[in-house]
Each structure stands twice: as C-alpha cells, then as structure tokens.
C-alpha cells in the first residue's frame, strides 16, 4: 500500500496549483483594470461573473466527483483551470473579461470541490485533522502566485507572458507531483438540485464558511487596489498586500492540526473570528501602508482555519455523500470567496473603498457566533 505521506504530498501539490493560479490572477488585477480602463463598479460586475461560474459548477462537480472519484476529477480540472487563466490575459473589454472570468470561476470552483473531496479521503486515512495543512498549501500557492506578480511587474513582463510562464510551470510541477496511486470512493448517491445548497445542520456550516471565504475573496481581489488607492502605495508594493495575508494564513494553517487537536474546532473557529475582526478594524481605521499590511496579516490568521473546518465537517456528515456535502458547503463558502470581490466593488462605488471593506467586520463577528456548528459530526 502506498505511503500516506505520498498521498498527502499529491493532494498538497494540487492545492498549491489551485492557490497559485488564483494568486497569479489576483496580483495582476490592477494592471488588467488599468489596461481596460474599468471603474470599481465595472470591475465588480466582471468579478460577479467569476462568482456565477463557480456557483454553477459546484453541484455538477459534486455529482461527478462522487461518480468518478475525486482523484480523476481533480487532475482533469487542473489542466482546464490553468488554460482558463491564460484567457484572462486576452480580454479586450469588460464583456470579454466577464466571459473569461465565468470560465475561470467555473474551473476554480470545480477544482475546489474535487480536491477537497480527495483531501477529506486522505484526512480520514490519517485519522488526524490535517485538512488545514492542505489549505495551508493553497495559501502558500496563492502567496507565491501573488509574489510572482511583484516579480513580473519589476521585470516589465506583460500580463499574458506572466500568465503563460507561471501557469505552465506550476501545472507541470503539480501534475508530476500528484501522480500517485490512490483509489477514490465512487458512489452514485442521490441526485441533488441544480444549485447544491446545504440543508439541515450543514446550513450553519455553510454560513460560517461564507463569512470566512467572503473575507478571503475581498482581500484577494481588492488588497492591491486598496493599498494603491487608500495608502498611495506603488504597484509593486501593492502586490505585497495579498502576499502578507497569504503568508500568515499559511503559518496558521500549518499549525492548524496542533491547534485544533489541542483546543477543538469550536474554540479554534472563535479565535479565528476574533482575529479577523481585529484585522478588518485595523485596515479600515488607517491610511498608512504598514498598519494596513498588519491588518491584512491579522485577517490571514483569522480566516485560516474556517474553511478547512467547514469542509471537514461537511465530509463527515452522516446523511449526505462527501462530494455533494462539500459541494453544498462550497456553494456558500467559495461562493463567498468569489461574491465578496464584486460586493466590495459595488459598495466602493457608493460609499468608498474603505467603508466597503468595513462590511467584513460584522461577518467576522458572525463567525464567532456560529463556531459551534463546525464541530465534527463523527
């Protein structure tokens, strides 16, 4: 039988790929916005198509994952997701960008469902709470992707060249690292409705995931613009906002297994909500670069374990097959990751970017109140 460590590495490679592609995209949003001359509102509309693509993909991928296995689905979607990143660099207007963002969001969401189902299988084989370590690899990939944007700007690379080079390298390495022998569970399961919405106890799990992921999405797509527009940071420095957020998230997710084992999922989630709230308050209460970066770092700590805990809870549900359970929570959770950016865009157009970010504060408090729903069912 293959080593469980080898299985962990294989899944981790796919999480790194998924995060890296998202971070690469996020790091060049200001450049794409400036090239297409988009307002905050127009960019928000474009990002809404990304959210729509993801939400539409969740129930389909959940059923396919239960039917054909998480491993096969993860590898196939990884290639398609990488190709969709390249399309974003070719957009020549708002509607072209919107269409490509729909495709990018669909493959991003699909891969999230499939790779988290695979991760849940490996976690159950480990019999330890290692889901947060996989999400740490996602954050590591996202941070590296964001840093690649900083390097690309410094080198004067166009967005297309940047996406081609980094996307090609990352997907090649990830696929090579993931090629291990692992037999996923396969089941027909009951057919879900078109939208994979959670039911029963999973509703509160999904809402907690929504609050955490909405904050993650807001930082991913707006931290660079926030630093440029509010603090006056240069484009290269602005790209560090998401990198700082990702670094602290990686650190706390790597420590997540120890934290969750020692204090339990409920206390861990409450601590995360408190840190996220403090981070949001720090960001919106100043217009100076270093304190804003510190606020993003606190938000990284705060949101670190929320999604891993939500997916672990979903995968352990006794009444719903893992693929469909994860897809239902992902509809609210990663739907929030993708709906957050357009929401911030719409609010920024009306109230300004700083007040738009302040909406994340009550959502962080809601995480504290819903922490009890993240206790594992088994």
Automatic annotation (TrEMBL):
InterPro entries: MFS (IPR011701), MFS_dom (IPR020846), MFS_trans_sf (IPR036259), MFS_Transporter (IPR051788). Its main location: membrane. Residues 201-378 form the Major facilitator superfamily (MFS) profile domain. Gene3D superfamilies: MFS general substrate transporter like domains. PROSITE patterns: MFS (PS50850). It comes from the Bacteria. It is a multi-pass membrane protein. The chain crosses the membrane at residues 42-60, 130-153, 159-182, 194-219, 239-261, 273-306, 326-348, 355-374. It is found in: Membrane. Keywords: Membrane, Transmembrane, Transmembrane helix. This is MFS transporter. It comes from Ruegeria atlantica.
């Amino acid at each position: 039988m293959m080593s469980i460590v080898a299985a962990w590495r294989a899944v981790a490679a796919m999480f790194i790929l998924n995060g890296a592609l998202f971070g690469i995209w996020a790091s060049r949003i200001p450049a794409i916005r400036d090239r297409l001359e988009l307002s905050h509102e127009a960019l928000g509309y474009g990002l809404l198509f990304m959210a729509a693509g993801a939400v539409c993909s969740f129930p389909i991928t959940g059923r396919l994952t239960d039917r054909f296995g998480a491993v096969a689905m993860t590898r196939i979607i990884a290639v398609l997701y990488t190709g969709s990143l390249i399309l974003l660099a070719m957009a020549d207007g708002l509607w072209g960008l919107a269409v490509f963002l729909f495709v990018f969001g669909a493959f991003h969401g699909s891969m999230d469902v499939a790779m988290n189902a695979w991760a849940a299988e490996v976690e159950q084989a480990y019999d330890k709470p290692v889901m947060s370590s996989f999400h740490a690899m996602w954050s590591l990939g996202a941070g590296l992707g964001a840093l690649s944007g900083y390097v690309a700007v410094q080198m004067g690379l166009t967005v297309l060249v940047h996406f081609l080079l980094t996307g090609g390298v990352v997907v090649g390495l990830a696929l090579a690292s993931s090629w291990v022998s692992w037999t996923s569970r396969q089941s027909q399961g009951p057919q879900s409705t078109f939208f994979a919405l959670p039911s029963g106890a999973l509703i509160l799990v999904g809402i907690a995931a929504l609050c955490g992921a909405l904050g993650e999405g807001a930082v991913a797509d707006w931290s660079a613009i926030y630093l440029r527009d509010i603090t006056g940071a240069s484009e290269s420095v602005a790209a560090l906002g998401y990198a700082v957020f990702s670094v602290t998230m990686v650190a706390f997710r790597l420590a997540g297994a120890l934290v969750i084992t020692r204090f339990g999922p409920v206390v861990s989630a409450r601590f995360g909500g408190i840190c996220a709230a403090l981070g949001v308050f720090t960001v919106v209460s100043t217009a100076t670069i270093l304190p804003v970066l510190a606020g993003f770092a606190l938000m990284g700590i705060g949101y670190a374990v929320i999604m891993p805990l939500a997916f672990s809870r979903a995968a352990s549900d006794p009444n719903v097959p893992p693929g469909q359970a994860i897809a239902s929570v992902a509809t609210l959770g990663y739907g929030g990751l993708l709906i957050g950016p357009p929401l911030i865009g719409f609010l920024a157009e009306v109230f300004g970017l700083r007040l738009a970010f302040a909406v994340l504060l009550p959502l962080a408090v809601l995480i504290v109140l819903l922490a009890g729903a993240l206790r594992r069912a088994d």
